[in-house]
Design a protein that fits this description.
65% of the residues lie in helices and 0% in strands. It has 163 residues and is an all-alpha fold. It has a domain of 112 residues: Globin-like (Orthogonal Bundle), CATH 1.10.490.10.
C-alpha cells in the first residue's frame, strides 16, 4: 500500500504542478502616464527629409535621366522646354511627397495616360530606376528609405512599360 500511496501522491503532485503551469494568462492593459499613446512612427515622407529633400533628389534624378546616354532622348523634349520641365518636376515632387505620406497632392495624369504611345521598354525603366537610386545616394538617403520608396514606385512599371 505504501508504494501505491506514493505513486498516487506523485501523480497528484504532477497534476497540481501541471495545473499551476497552465494557469490562465491575464491580459494586461497598457496605461500611459499622461493618458496619451506614444506618437506613431515617422512617415516615409518625414524619414526622407520632407519636401525640400525630395526636391533635391528629384532635381538630381531629372538631371541624371536627361544626361543618361540610354534614356536621355526620352527627357530631351522636357529639358528643351522650361515650362514642360517644371510640370514634370512638380509632378514628380508631388508624386513622391504624396506617395510617401506627405502633405502634397499629385495632380498629374495617371501613369498610363502619361506614358501611352511612348513604348517604354523594361531596360529603359530599369535605367530610370538606377538614376533615381543614384540621385538618392548622392544625398545619402539611407537604404531602408530607398527600399521603402522603391516599394511605392516600382509597381508603376506595369502602367509605364509597353504603353
Amino acid at each position: 500500500m505504501k508504494k501505491s500511496n506514493l505513486l498516487l501522491a506523485l501523480a497528484a503532485t504532477g497534476l497540481l504542478a501541471g495545473l499551476i503551469a497552465c494557469k490562465k494568462e491575464t491580459k494586461t492593459e497598457t496605461i500611459y502616464v499622461d493618458n496619451t499613446p506614444p506618437p506613431p512612427p515617422p512617415t516615409l515622407y518625414t524619414r526622407l527629409g520632407g519636401v525640400s529633400a525630395i526636391t533635391l533628389v528629384v532635381d538630381k534624378f531629372i538631371n541624371n535621366c536627361a544626361t543618361n546616354a540610354f534614356i536621355g532622348a526620352r527627357f530631351a523634349p522636357a529639358a528643351a522646354n522650361p515650362d514642360r520641365l517644371q510640370v514634370l518636376r512638380f509632378n514628380l515632387i508631388d508624386q513622391i511627397c504624396a506617395g510617401s505620406g506627405g502633405p502634397c497632392q499629385y495632380k498629374g495624369r495617371t501613369m498610363v495616360q502619361s506614358h501611352t504611345g511612348m513604348n517604354i521598354t523594361n531596360p529603359e525603366f530599369d535605367t530610370l530606376v538606377v538614376q533615381l537610386v543614384k540621385a538618392m545616394t548622392t544625398y545619402s538617403v539611407p537604404t531602408k528609405e530607398q527600399n521603402d520608396l522603391a516599394a511605392i514606385l516600382l509597381p508603376m512599371r506595369t502602367d509605364i512599360v509597353g504603353k
